[in-house]
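Give me the fold.
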Amino acid sequence: MTNHVFYRAGTHGNEASTGTDWVYVEGKELKQVSSGDNIVWGVDDDNDVFIREGISPSTPTGTEWRLLPVKMEQVDANPRFQLAWGVNSTDNVLQRIAGVPIPETHCYV
């Protein structure tokens, strides 16, 4: 099974829309994905965490995946705010707020 990521065309900025088509988002295969307003987080098979950069009305699928210096089993993006929660391999719950740098050794709890 592949872990491709898809975006539902016609849904950016319109929660009521059912969309029109599925669009493949290139660059990463992710085992788990969570999204919110202009934010997409994902985890790959190595538990590396990625966020999607460049999401906007003109580029709703974003422009690139950025690797974060942290390992997670699962992430959950807040649907309204630029923050996410994650669970690491030792079952610690961590939070990241957009724009706050993540130190190389840990996330903010």
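Residues 73 and 91 are 9 Å apart (CA to CA).
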